[in-house]
Amino acid sequence: MRKLLLVAAGVLGSWPTVQAQKLSATEQKIVASVQRHLPQTEQLLEQVVNINSGTLNLQGVRQVGDVFRKEFDALGFETEWVPMPAEMNRAGHLVARRTGKKGKKLLLIGHLDTVFEPDMPFTKFTRLNDSTATGQGVNDMKGGDVIILAALQALQENGLLNNTTITAYFTGDEERGGKGEAARADFITKAKASDVALAFESAAGLHTVATARRGSSSWQLKTYGQAAHSSGIFKPSVGDGAIYEAARILNAFREQLSQEQYLTFNPGLIVGGSEVEYNETKAYGEVVGKTNIIAPQANVAGDLRFLTEEQKENARVKMRAIVAQSLPQTRAEITFADGLPGMPPTPGNQRLADLTDQVSRDLGLGPVQAGDPGSRGAGDISIVAQYLDCLDGLGASGKGAHAPGETINTREFPLLVQRAALMIYRLTR
Question: What is the residue range of the signal peptide feature (predicted)?
Answer without folding.
Answer: 1-20
